[in-house]
């Protein structure tokens, strides 16, 4: 990320701590976002969308139901990310919203890079083959792909609102389009 974007996100994190949640921690949020990403991506891969009701917004869930049913198995398998396979995580954007009724929202876009061993065709654009691991002899190779995903987390900070983050956008470029 650029230094200006990094400073802007740190400024927004400061605003969240000062005006919304004095105990907000970037490290704790990132740890929770990684866990949520891993759980949600595995449930998507397994087509267990009914288990996502509390984690994903209704609009996103409806769009996912349509997209998941059309995916080939290889693409569906590539959605799953083990928490230990997440190589890098960064914030994409942080926003603070106030609507006309005084409702306050914070949304944080997280970008994840993860390794996945799904059997993707070589012509899938947008993904990068990182390496092949050779175990034992030359005939046993394990191919890994470095894939990306963008998940947006949103929380309402209006007094009396549940203190839960909800996923309001899910993007797996070239896989879930």
TrEMBL record:
Gene symbol of the encoding locus: Maip1
Name by which UniProt lists this protein: MAIP1 protein
GO cellular component: mitochondrial inner membrane
Any one GO MF annotation of this record: ribosome binding
Coiled coil segments of this chain: none
GO biological process: protein insertion into mitochondrial inner membrane from matrix
Organism from which the protein derives: Uria aalge (Common mure)
């Amino acid at each position: 990320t650029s230094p200006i974007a990094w400073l802007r996100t740190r400024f927004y994190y400061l605003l969240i701590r000062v005006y919304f949640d004095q105990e907000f921690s970037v490290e704790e949020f990132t740890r929770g976002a990684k866990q949520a990403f891993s759980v949600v991506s595995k449930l998507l891969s397994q087509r267990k969308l009914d288990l996502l009701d509390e984690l994903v917004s209704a609009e996103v869930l409806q769009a996912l139901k349509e997209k998941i049913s059309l995916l080939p198995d290889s693409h569906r398998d590539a959605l799953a990310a083990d928490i230990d396979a997440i190589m890098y995580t960064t914030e994409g954007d942080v926003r603070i919203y106030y609507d006309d009724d005084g409702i306050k929202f914070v949304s944080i876009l997280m970008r994840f890079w993860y390794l996945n061993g799904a059997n993707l065709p070589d012509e899938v654009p947008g993904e990068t083959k990182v390496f092949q691991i050779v175990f034992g002899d030359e005939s046993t190779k394990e191919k890994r792909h470095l894939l990306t995903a963008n998940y947006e987390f949103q929380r309402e900070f209006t007094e009396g609102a549940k203190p839960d983050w909800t996923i309001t956008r899910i993007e797996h470029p070239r896989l879930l389009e």
